[in-house]
């Protein structure tokens, strides 16, 4: 188990190295002179040379990457061209708001998605099953920005129950959490239903029912435990996406998170901030995937990660 975890951590380090190379090269992928693009066409030659010197773009490419990577290791992601503040500080200030919304959204998604999936499997091929699956199909095709605008129109403009946008309090987080949670719950409900339908047809489920066990115990203790692994994987990846910043929904609700920070950086051509947010979001995905792999081994001890493949 320890050896497997070490291998996954090593592979994660390799992926992060590749990600750092990609984010470093972002500024070099731009057609033309990136410094002139940042400053605009009215920039003087002196201003261009000063910024080029600050960004280290007048040095050899290899040396530029070494300086960039050493800074990343130390937690230095550069300085924002827009605010003049360290990129890591900007991200650290925005991350709590994103984490708050991610946790709230995931809570809605887990309760609604898994609950509807279990209900649909329990009442398979009934009107309730068809209704839930229709809801999930409609939700998966629904654009996030449209649902966000709809809930604002109904619950904020017409009913006045919640603030429209801009805050970070409890009432402010309800509508963004419901919007993101609903979108995530649709995929989760379909996955839960598919797994539960397969498990409920097994012989040990029929045996449990024949022994007189209650339906709730059969569903939750015997059936649901055996479909947890793929569900945990989906939940983990969705949570990583939420922590990375739900860009569209954050913009709709003017939520001061990582997604909004990234959009503002793109619109203002703040390339150090774009590099920093891209690297941060990618690192979250890598760490969550490693955590999911470790949870696999904990949730399903039947998986032998030390066994060698045949012929190896």
UniProtKB/TrEMBL annotation:
Cellular compartments annotated: Cell membrane
Pfam families listed in its UniProt record: BPD_transp_1 (PF00528), BPD_transp_1_N (PF19300)
Predominant location: membrane
Transmembrane domains' residue ranges: 9-30, 101-119, 131-155, 161-183, 227-249, 279-299
Residue span(s) of domain ABC transmembrane type-1: 95-296
Keywords of the record: Cell membrane, Membrane, Transmembrane, Transmembrane helix, Transport
GO annotation, biological process: transmembrane transport
Protein topology in the membrane: Multi-pass membrane protein
Gene Ontology cellular component terms for the protein in this record: plasma membrane
Keyword flag Transport: yes
Record PANTHER family: DIPEPTIDE TRANSPORT SYSTEM PERMEASE PROTEIN DPPB-RELATED
Family statement drawn from the similarity comment of this UniProt entry: Belongs to the binding-protein-dependent transport system permease family.
Protein name: Glutathione ABC transporter permease GsiC
Organism: Brevibacillus reuszeri
């Amino acid at each position: 188990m320890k050896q497997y975890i070490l291998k996954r951590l090593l592979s994660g380090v390799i992926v992060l190295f590749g990600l750092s190379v990609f984010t470093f090269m972002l500024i070099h992928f731009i057609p033309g002179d990136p410094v002139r693009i940042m400053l605009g066409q009215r920039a003087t030659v002196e201003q261009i040379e000063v910024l080029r010197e600050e960004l280290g773009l007048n040095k050899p490419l290899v040396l530029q990457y070494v300086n960039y990577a050493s800074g990343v290791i130390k937690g230095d992601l550069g300085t924002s061209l827009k605010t003049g503040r360290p990129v890591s500080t900007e991200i650290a200030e925005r991350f709590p708001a994103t984490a708050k919304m991610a946790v709230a959204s995931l809570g809605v998604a887990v309760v609604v998605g898994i609950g509807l999936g279990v209900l649909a499997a329990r009442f398979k091929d009934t009107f309730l099953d068809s209704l839930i699956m229709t809801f999930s199909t409609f939700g998966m095709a629904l654009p996030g920005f449209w649902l966000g605008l709809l809930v604002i129109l109904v619950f904020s403009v017409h009913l006045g129950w919640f603030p429209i946008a801009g805050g970070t309090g409890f009432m402010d987080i309800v509508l963004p959490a419901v919007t993101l949670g609903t979108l995530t719950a649709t995929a989760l409900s379909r996955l839960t239903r598919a797994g539960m339908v397969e498990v409920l047809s097994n012989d040990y489920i029929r045996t449990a029912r024949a022994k007189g066990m209650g339906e709730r115990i059969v569903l939750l203790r015997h059936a649901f435990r055996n479909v947890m692994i793929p569900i945990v994987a989906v939940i983990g990846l969705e949570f990583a996406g939420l922590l990375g910043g739900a860009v569209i929904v954050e913009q709709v609700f003017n939520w001061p998170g990582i997604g909004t920070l990234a959009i503002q950086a793109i619109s203002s051509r703040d390339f150090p901030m774009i590099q920093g947010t891209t690297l941060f979001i990618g690192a979250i995905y890598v760490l969550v995937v490693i955590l999911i792999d470790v949870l696999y081994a904990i949730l399903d001890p039947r998986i032998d990660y030390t066994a060698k493949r045949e012929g190896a």
